[in-house]
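pasting input
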Amino acid sequence: MDKGNVNARDGVLAHLEMLEVQAQGAAMKQQEKDLQEEKLTRLKARVMELRLQRDELQAKVNLQEKKQLEKEGTASDPAQASHKTVLQWKIKNLQAMLQVFYLTGISGKLTRHGVCFYISTAYEGTYLDSYYLDLLTKSEVQIYHHSVPHFIPLEQIAKQYLQTDIRRFLSVLSDHLNAYVGRRYQADQLQEHFSDQIKGTLWRNSLCNLLVFNYDMPSKSKTFPFHVRLVYGNLCHSLPTEVTISCTPDAPASLTETATAHTHLFRSMPLHKAFHSLSSAGETLDGTP
Amino acid sequence: MDSDICQVYEDEIQSLKEEIKLLSKKYEDSQQESTYFSDKEILMSVKSLQRELQGESEGHESAADLQAQLESLETDLSFLMKLTGIQFTGLSKKTLERTGNKTVRKYRLSGSCCSLSFQLEFQLLEMQNKGNVSAAITDLSITMEPRGNSDLDNFVSSEKCGSLLTFFRSLSSYAEWYEHRRCTFLHFKEKYPDIVSLPEGLLGDYILLRNPKASGFELMIVWKIHINEKGKTTPVLDLLTKVPKQVLDQKMAAIENAPTRFRSMLLVVGIEEAIENLVNIFVSER
């Protein structure tokens, strides 16, 4: 074999290989570029499509608003509405009414095996947890499933009222649940908004009818924290039945008066509101305003 | 460079999609709220839909679905109204604000609970966070009819901070007693029409018992329904006597003790029997 020829051949081959790679590379780049362009065109088209859709919708909504301003809240043209539309409107209307029942505290729906009730709870204007009770009503009324927490005396209440007076059963259960949720809400609000005045942890049981914590008033001088024990004896109420406030042994005697005033406050007002009024009154522990 | 432009387009597509979603909801809400079909129109549509069902089979499924849905909703609603005693006669809502996660709607609700009618207006704020919808009521205004139930009126006007839930639960228990009182009065009026009279009617809060032959001796049973600030209702009954002077001089002690005896009788035998016992005084003298 001619060494020179081999070399030359290798060189040509290598050169050809290089050209091929270059060509492949260029083709790939071209492909990528084409794909990119395709993608860009696609996206652009999609944007146009959506813009058009949005503008049409906006025009529809504007027309609606104009019509409403012209004739205040009267009916649409019934001749235009198809029967299906009419029924769909009625269905939405009924669904809205069922939703309002939720706001009243007791709502529900009939099921194949009985009825499922929903008890909603609220503290003042804010709606909090809602609980369900799935009842079987074939022979006697039985609770099939429920989401009532275990510390609520559901069985007791059911034993007393479920078979004889379902309305009373729901009402009593609702009282318990609303009171529990109300107590929990007060404790949560206290921890959230007055954490700087609470010393240490706020201890509460799961039913939230026993609260123990230490607090003090913001004061420039040395603070003497109060130790509070709140007992909510009536499970259907969200105000405590027993309030015990004690001071540390080295606290001045004048503090007992403040403690008594606070006791009265906690007994008559929701907890977070009591603290709010304490802070705004600007009371300090040494009794000076 | 190109990828940047792509990103810009993709961002715009995303924001357009959200805008479209919001606008469609707004349009649907507005359509629903500004439309009204009377019960007659709805009945007509149901009937013609039924005719369509029997005719062609196309669109059959969705028409049957609609009807089934309508029926199930109506059954659920009538069951709830019967159970709770709360009937809604009118509901209108208007979406005031709908942005992202927040919706504010103004509601006008009218209805009755037993013979007590109410009209409510309130705003409902709904916020969506992480799959949970939280709701809060503001600007609650309540009008009750008939007025003149001083306890109920006081309670309603003291309802602060929009406590719609408390209003309904208290209304429910007040209405139960209201209805119970009305039925009891009606029962006695029908059973002893000559002895019993209701100067303020069945919805008043007292009942008069008198001897049809010899007037002058009257018993007035007052039955008030108290409602405290928390919404707890308690019936309070009392007895008032109207006695001619001669009888009073003779039987002063018995007459004076009558209200107390009546109250203890209530605790022992309950309202109906206690009233029945009093009525029997006159029956035996007929």
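fyi Chain B has a mean pLDDT of 84.
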